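Input.
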Amino acid sequence: MAQAVQRLFPRQNCHWTTIQDGFYYDFEIPDHALTTEDLEAIEKEMKKIVQEDQKLVRYCIPDVDKQIEDFRSQGEKFKVELLTEHRDHNPTLYLMLDKDGKNVWNDLCRGPHCLQPDLSKLSSL
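Output.
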């Protein structure tokens, strides 16, 4: 979902938080409040991402300071905050790679994740 939102609203920031039964995302989109139409567009974009059959790859961050600077230069202020806070906990990114192996999106997450889920079996998003 966060990948879809970032595609539709490139200037947004998102932050995930774990809770007892899972997690949730907070989205900060400058000068915009999400509407019902936005939610429909997000769902449509999520379905498009599923069809792209991206590969999920776990990446251990070797140089946390460099990654923080990369996030800062990309305007990813929440990722800067999270990585700074968790810098000593072996932080990982999960990279989404396209069919050519190009990184098209990443999420700062402790995981673990199923590294090659069969998204074609999703019944709902």
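The mean pLDDT is 88.
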